[in-house]
Write a structure and sequence with these properties.
By secondary structure, the protein is α+β, with helices and mostly antiparallel strands. The protein has one domain. It starts with a strand and ends with a strand.
Length: 76
C-alpha cells in the first residue's frame, strides 16, 4: 500500500509547531500540533497512518536538520 502525505507549517512558537497536512497540496485539511518540549504530536481527527507518517517525518527532519521544517512531503 502506498502512502503520500504533504504538510505545511502554519504556526511556529517556542513550545509548539502547528502544521496542516493531507494527501495533496490542495487538500491539506487536517491539523497536526507538535509539542516541541515533549516531542509528542496530536491532531484534530483520527490518529491514522496519514497522521503518524506526517508527524514522524516532521520529527525526523527536525532531529536531523535541527530546524522545524516549513513544508514537506513523505511518500512511502
Amino acid at each position: 500500500m502506498a502512502l503520500l502525505v504533504y504538510y505545511r507549517q502554519v504556526r511556529n512558537e517556542p513550545e509548539e509547531a502547528e502544521y496542516w497536512f493531507g494527501t495533496s497540496r490542495e487538500e491539506m485539511s487536517r491539523t497536526l500540533v507538535i509539542d516541541k518540549v515533549r516531542r509528542t504530536a496530536r491532531t484534530d481527527g483520527d490518529e491514522n497512518m496519514l497522521f503518524w507518517e506526517a508527524a514522524g517525518h516532521i520529527l525526523l527532519r527536525e532531529g536531523r536538520e535541527k530546524v522545524w521544517p516549513t513544508h514537506g512531503m513523505k511518500a512511502s
